[in-house]
Predict the 3D structure of the following.
Amino acid sequence: MERVRQQSRVAAASWEGAAPASVSAGTLFVKVPTAGQAKSITQSRRDLMMRTVLVESFGIDLQVTATADASATTAPVEDVPSQDDPNLGDDGLSGVDLAVQALGATKIGEIEGQ
């Protein structure tokens, strides 16, 4: 990673949290924490930069593929306001319930967590 950092600190930051996962059919699979990070590495061609570093530093020519680490994925946490939140109204309503009561909004549905 130091060699990548010497070429570009931005490139080094894009590989933050990365770890080699496996090598198969001439491809080094590298796990990164999120799918967005994997996509960003590919779109910005940082995978090609890593391939070049592997060739120049170790004489290893492997295609590099960033993949999301499924074990690092976390479920979204429901945002519940604290009872001593100064922005919480006297009736204890927040979010959609507050918009319905205070603004006359209409709740049209909920999206279930996946």
